[in-house]
Amino acid sequence: SFPELFEKKNYELRIAGGAVRDLLSGMTPQDIDFATTATPAEMKELFTSAGVRLINNKGEKHGTITARLHEQNFEITTLRIDVVTDGRHAEVEFTTDWEKDAERRDLTVNSMFLGLDGMLYDFFNGYEDLKNKKIRFVGKASERIQEDYLRILRYFRFYGRIAEKPGDHEPSTLQAIKENAKGLAGISGERIWVELKKILLGNHVNHLVRLMYELDIAQYIGLPLEGNLEELDRVTKNIQNLCPKPMTVLVSLFKVKDDVTNLDLRLKISKEEKNLGLFLVKHRHELIKAMGPEPLRPYQDFIMDSREANTNSKICELLIYQGEEHLLREMQQWTVPSFPVSGHDLRKMGVSSGKEIGTALQQLRDEWKKSGYHMDKEELLSCLKKL
């Protein structure tokens, strides 16, 4: 196993960062990252001579080597100090000092190391903070933020993942965030969107988005200046346990379709996300359940009339937005019925001209729709005789 390779050469190897946090919280980490005192050159030498496959990635200049073992990728990064930072990326220098490496990490809960013997190396009280569900920056918040302004959003993301209740922030941290909010203007939209999506799917989302407005962050990350926070409160209650897409949550802030366009300009969201946003802004208040025995009918009619492929999934997001849990379940069980009559059937009945066939099919489609899509071919064709 590769830890033995390191041990043989007296290089230290420990599990680092988020994986330690997950392990200590009793969760299975998504991926396990390692940190080591060995330099990239030493690691390459080590792995190559042991016949371990290396995956060529661009991480080497920051000190990261990726080894492929047992169908899994392992990232192993040399301990480092960030020498020059410009708020977006860092130039690094390697070190063998574990504390120095922990010091450049963002949050205390992400700054711990775990020895392979189970020994925890925790220079900034990360374990205490994790147990108390506290999110804090390592050292001075403003310094950490100025090294990479995206850390403002990482603070929110981990708050939404770990903190127990809204409003449990250190005032000095919020102050540092507010003073540095403008730095987010220089961060790429793609990086911001990755973090924002995770925030929107985490806990305390309405509290955190409110903070984005209070701390003057919203305008730098593509959100409307006057976000509809009342609607956000309503929708975050609706969506509990319904697994919305991030866009479905975010749209609650938007008042007009330009809000979607502006978000797209700043964050370069996917075409699918943009279309979902526009769809929800347009239909969320008009397309609602029917009174009476068939509440789903308006949604089903909309799907049947639609010429687009993924209307079904958009309608499901609309039902989540509206908090219609029962209708959502029903909608997920519903399959789009196919219209039972074809032009071929009409020709057999003696309708010959293309134009007449077109008209007749449209009329029959309307009758079929009125019947709630229940009429079968026989009923529809006998209907044609009446028409």
From TrEMBL:
Every Poly A polymerase head domain range: 13-136
GO MF, one example: nucleotide binding
Listed GO CC annotations: mitochondrion
Gene3D superfamilies: Beta Polymerase, domain 2, cca-adding enzyme, domain 2
Start and end residues of each tRNA nucleotidyltransferase/poly(A) polymerase RNA and SrmB- binding domain: 170-221
Keyword list, A-Z: Magnesium, Metal-binding, Nucleotide-binding, Nucleotidyltransferase, RNA-binding, Transferase, tRNA processing
GO biological process: mitochondrial tRNA 3'-end processing; tRNA 3'-terminal CCA addition
Listed cofactors: Mg(2+)
Keyword Magnesium: yes
Keyword tRNA processing found: yes
Pfam families: PolyA_pol, PolyA_pol_RNAbd
Family membership: Belongs to the tRNA nucleotidyltransferase/poly(A) polymerase family.
Name under which the protein is recorded: CCA tRNA nucleotidyltransferase 1, mitochondrial
Species: Phalacrocorax carbo
Lineage of source species: Eukaryota, Metazoa, Chordata, Craniata, Vertebrata
